[in-house]
């Protein structure tokens, strides 16, 4: 009887420990949501023209209740037409990049994997450069650059999946194929820019360093269903990713179709990154740093890691964009340069801290 009671007590202790650990993860995600909302409010109210939180609230309230007249035209234009679309685009881009980075690091079994390792961003840069410098594209009008960037991003993704599929979609083949395509499209971009005139090349280079300034409500309405649908699919498959953490052989023995799961998640991540890159240009380090920050706080449970990485990615991108708009106001720096500038020391700090913890 004493052995039986000891086993039961051990089960109770393990369950309590699990629930406590799970509660800490839920609390972390719960804190991230209001934190992100506060950051959005702070970002909307700060810029070359400072606007109070009250005016931000009244402008949003006025749009939902048109009969009210609670804010000035000046504040209405700045908030609703300039800052809010830019910031919402940043939130969606940060979620897509952060969540995709977390999934890719599991799928590719590489802690340095991020949404740009597989050549998706370099392919988008090549497509955008073709459109900006030579006017060559598969679309016309205002979506020429966006359409071209999206097409070549998907082309890169299809090449990776097609070539790596011949080796049963192994992580190593995906990474190597992606790196080869990254350098290939970078070379093509350099050749295209070499033959362009100075103004066009300048515009193409500016596109590649990331920019949220061209966001508007029409572009948000296009990107929103892609991002939300992709994120829901990634959350849906998070249990399989948890099992894959134990290794492919173990996952197969537990009934997980490892090859399908890897390909499925890579397709969703590729679509998310391609959609974001085509609208914002290259924004680096968000998809690399955000999952590491979350992993060091709440561990590797992908049911919480994937959504939390998306929220942290949004917070990092909104902070970087706020710095880009205010540090040299009225000059607005490219947000991709700011994320890289702050991402490098933050990533180095995380590596040092992790090494210190393991010792």
Automatic annotation (TrEMBL):
It comes from the Bacteria. Its main location: membrane. The chain crosses the membrane at residues 27-45, 87-108, 115-139, 145-163, 175-196, 216-236, 271-298, 304-324, 331-352. GO terms for molecular function: transmembrane transporter activity. One of its GO terms (cellular component) is plasma membrane. The keyword Transport applies. It is found in: Cell membrane. Pfam families: FecCD (PF01032). Keywords: Cell membrane, Membrane, Transmembrane, Transmembrane helix, Transport. InterPro entries: ABC_BtuC-like, ABC_transptr_permease_BtuC. Belongs to the binding-protein-dependent transport system permease family. FecCD subfamily. It comes from Desulfobacula phenolica. SUPFAM superfamilies: ABC transporter involved in vitamin B12 uptake, BtuC. The keyword Nuclease does not apply. GO terms for biological process: siderophore-iron import into cell. This is Iron complex transport system permease protein. It is a multi-pass membrane protein.
């Amino acid at each position: 009887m004493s052995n039986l009671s000891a086993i039961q007590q051990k089960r109770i202790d393990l369950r309590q420990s699990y629930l406590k650990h799970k509660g800490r993860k839920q609390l972390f995600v719960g804190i991230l949501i209001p934190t992100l909302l506060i950051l959005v409010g702070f970002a909307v109210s700060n810029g070359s023209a400072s606007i109070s939180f009250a005016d931000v609230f009244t402008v949003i309230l006025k749009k939902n209740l048109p009969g009210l007249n609670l804010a000035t035209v000046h504040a209405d234009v700045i908030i609703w037409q300039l800052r809010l679309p830019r910031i919402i685009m940043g939130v969606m881009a940060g979620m897509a990049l952060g969540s995709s980075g977390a999934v890719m690091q599991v799928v590719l079994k590489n802690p340095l994997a991020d949404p740009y390792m597989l050549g998706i961003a370099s392919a988008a840069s090549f497509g955008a450069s073709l459109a900006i410098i030579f006017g060559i594209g598969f679309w016309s009008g205002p979506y020429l650059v966006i359409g071209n960037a999206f097409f070549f991003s998907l082309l890169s993704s299809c090449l990776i999946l097609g070539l790596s599929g011949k080796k049963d979609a192994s992580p190593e083949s995906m990474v190597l194929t992606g790196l080869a395509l990254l350098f290939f499209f970078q070379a093509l971009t350099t050749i295209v820019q070499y033959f362009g005139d100075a103004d066009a090349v300048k515009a193409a280079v500016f596109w590649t360093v990331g920019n949220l300034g061209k966001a508007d409500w029409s572009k948000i309405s296009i990107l929103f269903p892609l991002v939300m649908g992709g994120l829901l699919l990634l959350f849906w498959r998070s249990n399989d990713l948890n099992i894959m953490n134990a290794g492919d052989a173990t996952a197969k023995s537990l009934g997980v179709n490892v090859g399908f799961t890897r390909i499925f998640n890579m397709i969703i991540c590729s679509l998310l990154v391609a959609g974001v890159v085509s609208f914002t240009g290259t924004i680096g380090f968000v998809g690399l740093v955000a999952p590491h920050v979350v992993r060091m706080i709440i561990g590797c449970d992908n049911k919480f890691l994937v959504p939390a990485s998306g929220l942290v990615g949004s917070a990092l991108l909104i902070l970087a964009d706020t710095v880009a708009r205010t540090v040299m106001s009225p000059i607005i720096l490219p947000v991709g340069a700011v994320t890289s500038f702050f991402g490098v020391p933050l990533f180095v700090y995380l590596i040092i801290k992790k090494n210190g913890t393991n010792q």
